[in-house]
Design brief:
alpha/beta; six-stranded mixed beta sheet; 13 strands
Length: 268
């Protein structure tokens, strides 16, 4: 069979289109990202990020964790591509203690830490010598002690920075007894202690409303804005910028404002 010149050109163009089709499909396929978050607000926010990210060519697979240690371990080991749940002092401590090489690539939200009680309606009712639960990790435990110092309830050694410990208390006129627990357990301790310092995500999970129920609350200042973390080797990958932009979008800001009513603050 013979073909005229126009027929041959049509066949060549059709063959070229067929050969190019798989390459185009590959180019348009969404980038799959494994994202780690702690259960509660971080997970809720990432669900709001997901459709925004899809418009930017990212397909997010979200894994929830119940503690603060495993999301960084999973990221460092390569089981995750990115996580979103921690502030910089905690990330710095994890890198130092566990020899990780994780970096922040964008700010997310702030969760002012608070003091809660089932036994007392106001802080003034908490008696001298009361047991008070605080997180046992260095950054959040230190954050709790700095909150008490800011409120004039204890005095800490000079120069302790953002990670003071109970041993750094130099003045405690009301003789509070600080009990150190895993951050996830502080809310569960409320039946057993006079008061507990609880991170906002765990307070919300326990049915508490920070703006209403906290006896004392941290001012939204300092380095405690949460961030998006990736492995240092991945920080310049093509998906990082669209992921951060998806999180820091107007749609997600509106979701945070409407959903958490001031308990969680957008920080971009």
């Amino acid at each position: 069979m013979t073909y005229s010149a126009p027929d041959r050109r049509s066949l060549i163009l059709s063959a070229a289109a067929l050969l190019a089709a798989p390459a185009i499909a590959r180019a348009q396929a969404p980038t799959k990202l494994r994202v780690g978050v702690t259960a509660g607000p971080h997970a809720q926010i990432l669900e709001a990020v997901k459709p925004v990210a899809a418009k930017r060519g990212l397909d997010l697979s979200i894994t929830e964790f119940s503690d603060y240690i495993l999301p960084n371990a999973a990221l460092a080991s390569g089981d995750l591509d990115v996580n979103s749940y921690q502030h910089k002092p905690f990330l710095d401590q994890q890198n130092a203690d566990r020899k990780y090489n994780l970096v922040g690539v964008g700010f997310t939200v702030n969760f002012p830490i608070g003091v809660y009680s089932k036994k007392h309606k106001r802080w003034e009712e908490v008696p001298a010598g009361a047991q008070i639960a605080i997180p046992n990790d260095p950054t959040n435990g230190g954050r709790a002690l700095l909150l008490f110092q800011d409120k004039g309830l204890v005095k800490l050694k000079e120069g302790v920075g953002y990670r003071p410990t109970i041993a750094d208390i130099v003045q405690n006129e009301r003789r509070f007894r600080f009990i150190e627990l895993e951050a996830a357990q502080t809310a569960r301790s409320l039946d057993d202690v006079a008061a507990a310092v609880i991170n906002t995500n765990y307070a919300l999970s326990a049915g508490l409303t920070p703006g209403r129920d906290a006896l004392l609350r941290e001012d939204p200042k300092g380095p405690y804005v949460n961030l998006i973390a990736v492995r240092d080797a991945d920080k310049d990958k093509a998906w990082v910028k669209p992921f951060v932009e998806s999180y820091q979008s107007a749609e997600v800001r509106e979701f945070v404002q409407k959903t958490f009513q001031g308990s969680v603050l957008s920080s971009w």
